[in-house]
Amino acid sequence: MDSTDLYNLKQHFFLGMAHSHDRTLPFFTRLLPQGAYKSLVEQKLPQQSSEDYIPILFYKARAHIALGDTQAVASLIPTDTENFALKAVTVFAKYISAPAGDAALEELRDLCIEIEGDDVEATEREKGWVRVVAGTAFARAGEIEEALETLGAESTTENLEAVAIAVQIYLSIHRPDLARKEFERAKPWAEDDLLLQLMESTIGLVTGKDGYSDSQSFYTEQLANPSLSSPHLLTARGVTRLLRGEVQEAKSDLEEAVLQQDGHDDAETLAASVVAAGLGPKKGDADELWSRLASAYPEHPLVSTVYAKASEFDDLVVKFRVPPLAIPTAA
Fold this sequence. Notes:
The protein is mainly alpha-helical.
């Protein structure tokens, strides 16, 4: 059983699992809370003799990667570490940052094979962490089948984090039915875990089940917890309210999220604000927000999609030929 410190750390980290670092997910699917990654990377490590040392180091290193600081991983994890999970995180950081991504993927494949050995010195939890990290890397590389197989999708695995990532992958390939199947498979043994609730909320955002009620309830519940509440949760609830047609309530959440960000534009909050403003009477507000989004985040999926559709429209306009007017014949 996890200690209180490790339990709280994992709750913060898991709230970030579905955030926008994975640009393969549909726009509204990605508008989920980022989690307190910054607070995680600032958290001090316990003594190396502590049972929490390896787990907290593992999640702390992954939080650095989530924030784009892959260099910090090298300073955190010794190069001669014998722990398979820490080795996997180190290789994953190399995959994210280095041009030789294929080589890093091969290293992860080798680690996945190595942990299956009969004489390997690794706990089942450590083996599960290796599969989670490797599966995440394979999914980012577009190796969907390999990712799902590594994560143990549609198997008897009881690694809830692996199940959660498999759910995201299925949603990214537009298979909410299989995502729901994975979720239902985990319910009997995962009880009422936060990560299980996050899966249900994510699936609800994609499918619109029960008018997005599961998603709204989940975000409202988390916002009531001072230790978890964040502008990203407000953005997530704002998006849910947009999908429910509650435009004014959504704008209120998004405006509060902006205030909590201290003048630093967050891509997802800004994108959601563009959509909310576009549904209001003042189109000038939407134009101003769109200019900020397109300028600050030109590779954001909303921006690239709109520009792609505009280009496609222009191409079709050029090809369109107006047929001649019909001239009525004399009676």
